[in-house]
């Protein structure tokens, strides 16, 4: 490990300084929970008996404290391809816990919605707030006080952040995340994108589109593009919360099974050693996750999730921190949608082991005390089968420099995201997904308040020109901040026709989005009088990733905000009204609960 780059050190020190009060309060609470909080030894006989009444062969061991008891939090459902493999995990994990002299129980289940199913649909308005719901579900499950360690089964977009936020409130016990891996590669993502654009132009039938989508999303495991789900797995490796190299082994393989077994044995070891999650997830771990995000061109959704995860650990982390890290960290990976190969190709080229190796070699990450291993250097290795077990092999070279390169031969000198600011607020721009000649777009704006209106205008030929499409009232307080992934094909068509096109929105874009320049997560959001609410059709808008500018020439000072659309109802959205009313800005995490949580501390 090289000496830490002074730019990384400076950002880390700044985060520590501004987090001092919150971090001290958090660690004080964790100390108190460890000393006086509820656990098996403090339960009354009636409480305790309820906790092991249905434990079968493990009943005696739990009752007599014969080793740690591991709580399994599962996001299993068999509609979501990424989580379907978890079906048999709990019963297997109980066997592997016994091998290590411990027991395991399913502490609880949490929802896992699929953004791929809800993209462009009413259900997407529930997506971001499902993260808070998951975090609360983890808290409910662990509030029973029956567990000395936590194993979390989750992999996709809001699920991993929600699991980790919830577990951090029980940070006085150890925790580890157990992934299930990506599905094998199907139809190439570039071909899928091509058919989507043909359909948007009316040149492909719905049956042809469905055939392409089905060939791409075809089995168990995460989708193979490098979106939010697979970016989650990257971050958990960079934070040391996986068994080394666990992120991208495919489901249903012996390697995957052995990695899960190793995770169970490791969490038992951590529990026996009284390790704590709160010590693993510190300022350095948050910086490592951000560095990995920049280096690999990961999902823009983590510009919302990382600040929220950090806050759950008492850490203040914002977009300026991300921007400064992006300036220090080169882009070393190009994985679809930022390149042609998918996540499986990335893994076979060296994957997270090579990423960790080259970042460590250049002092761009912290050497943590990880949960998944005794030494962070182990994350520069890949697991392989060794008889009935595993061994780890060092990875010091990329086998495919079209998608994975060492720091000294990076694709671009800085990371994959830029912070934009100006009289239209602050926003994020994913440069790694967009050709450099499109980093600056200046054109008259056309304003919309939902996705279907944009699609109709495209179909009617109204957008066939240079245009900045503004989709406002898409923030957390307005409608739950849905992803606007449905807009990528029509805007991509306009761009391919030679027009200068950009998207500006206070909503989100999918981690799989790219190609079209987009200023997203605009803060403050339009609801409440944010600058986007003051724009009018035809105003000149400038989006520039080169200078970090998001602005308009129009004088906004004398304008009244546009009327706020009716709150979304139906498809259960009215049940989330409380979340919308209390949500904070995207830069703080777009959460409905974290401000209140911090106030109580």
TrEMBL record:
GO BP terms = D-gluconate metabolic process; Entner-Doudoroff pathway through 6-phosphogluconate
Q: Keywords for this entry?
A: 4Fe-4S, Carbohydrate metabolism, Gluconate utilization, Iron, Iron-sulfur, Lyase, Metal-binding
Domain (Dihydroxy-acid/6-phosphogluconate dehydratase N-terminal) spans: 68-367
Q: InterPro entries per the record?
A: 6-phosphgluc_deHydtase, Dihydro-acid_dehy_C, DiOHA_6PGluconate_deHydtase_CS, ILV_EDD_C, ILV_EDD_N, IlvD/EDD_N
- Recorded GO CC terms: cytosol
GO molecular function terms listed in the Swiss-Prot or TrEMBL record: 4 iron, 4 sulfur cluster binding; metal ion binding; phosphogluconate dehydratase activity
In terms of SUPFAM superfamilies, this protein maps to: IlvD/EDD N-terminal domain-like (SSF143975), LeuD/IlvD-like (SSF52016)
What are the EC numbers? 4.2.1.12
Ranges for domain Dihydroxy-acid/6-phosphogluconate dehydratase C-terminal: 403-589
Which Pfam families does the annotation name?
Answer: ILV_EDD_C (PF24877), ILVD_EDD_N (PF00920)
Would you say which domain of life the source belongs to? Bacteria
Against NCBIfam families, the record matches this protein to: edd
The family classification in the record reads: Belongs to the IlvD/Edd family.
Please identify the protein, giving its name as recorded.
Phosphogluconate dehydratase
Tell me the gene name.
edd
């Amino acid at each position: 490990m090289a000496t830490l780059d002074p730019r990384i050190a400076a950002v880390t020190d700044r985060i520590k300084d501004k987090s001092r009060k919150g971090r001290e309060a958090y660690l004080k609470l964790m100390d108190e929970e460890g000393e006086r909080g509820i656990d098996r030894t403090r339960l009354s006989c009636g409480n305790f008996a309820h906790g092991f009444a249905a434990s079968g062969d493990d009943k005696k061991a739990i009752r007599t404290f014969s080793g740690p008891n591991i709580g399994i939090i599962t996001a299993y459902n068999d509609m979501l391809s990424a989580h379907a493999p978890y079906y048999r995990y709990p019963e297997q994990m109980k066997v592997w816990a016994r091998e290590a002299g411990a027991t395991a129980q399913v502490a609880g289940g949490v929802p896992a919605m699929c953004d791929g199913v809800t993209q462009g649909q009413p259900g997407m308005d529930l997506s971001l707030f499902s993260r808070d719901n998951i975090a609360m579900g983890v808290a409910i499950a662990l509030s029973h006080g029956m567990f000395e360690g936590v194993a979390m089964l989750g992999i996709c977009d809001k699920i991993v952040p929600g699991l980790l936020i919830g577990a951090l409130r029980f940070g006085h016990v150890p925790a580890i995340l157990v992934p299930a891996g990506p599905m094998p590669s199907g139809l190439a993502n570039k071909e899928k994108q091509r058919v989507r654009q043909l359909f948007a132009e009316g040149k492909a039938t719905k049956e042809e589109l469905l055939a392409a989508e089905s060939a791409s999303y075809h089995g168990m495991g995460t989708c193979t593009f490098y979106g939010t789900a697979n970016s989650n797995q990257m971050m958990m490796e960079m934070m040391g919360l996986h068994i080394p190299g666990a992120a991208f082994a495919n489901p249903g393989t012996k390697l995957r099974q052995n990695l899960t077994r190793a995770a169970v044995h490791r969490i038992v070891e951590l529990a026996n050693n009284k390790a704590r999650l709160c010590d693993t997830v510190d300022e350095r771990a948050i910086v490592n996750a951000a560095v990995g995000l920049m280096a690999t061109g990961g999902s823009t959704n983590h510009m919302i999730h990382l600040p929220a995860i950090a806050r759950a650990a008492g850490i203040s982390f914002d977009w300026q921190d991300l921007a400064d890290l992006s300036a220090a960290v080169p882009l070393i990976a190009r994985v679809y949608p930022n390149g042609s190969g998918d996540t499986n190709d990335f893994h076979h080229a060296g994957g997270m082991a090579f990423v960790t190796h080259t970042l460590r070699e250049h002092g761009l990450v912290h050497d943590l005390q990880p949960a998944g291993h005794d030494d962070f250097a182990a994350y520069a290795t890949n697991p392989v089968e060794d008889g009935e077990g595993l061994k780890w092999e060092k990875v010091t070279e990329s086998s495919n420099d079209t998608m994975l390169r060492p720091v000294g031969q990076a694709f671009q000198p800085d990371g994959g995201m830029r912070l934009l600011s100006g009289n239209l607020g602050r926003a994020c721009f994913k440069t790694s997904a967009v050709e450099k000649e499109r980093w600056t777009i200046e054109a008259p704006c056309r304003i919309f308040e939902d996705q279907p209106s944009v699609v109709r205008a495209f179909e009617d030929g109204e957008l066939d020109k240079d245009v900045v499409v503004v989709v406002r009232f898409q923030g957390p307080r307005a409608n739950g901040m849905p992803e606007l992934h449905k807009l990528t094909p029509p805007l991509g068509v306009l761009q391919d026709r030679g027009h200068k096109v950009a998207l500006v929105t206070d909503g989100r874009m999918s981690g799989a989005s790219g190609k079209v320049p987009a200023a997203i997560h605009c803060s403050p959001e339009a609801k409440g009088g944010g600058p986007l609410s003051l724009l009018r059709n035809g105003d000149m808008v400038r989006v520039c990733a080169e200078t970090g500018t998001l602005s308009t020439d129009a004088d906004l000072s004398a304008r009244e905000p546009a009327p706020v659309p009716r709150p979304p109802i139906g498809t259960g959205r009215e049940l989330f009204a409380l979340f919308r009313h209390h949500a904070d800005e995207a830069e703080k995490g777009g959460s409905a609960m974290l401000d209140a949580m911090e106030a109580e501390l």
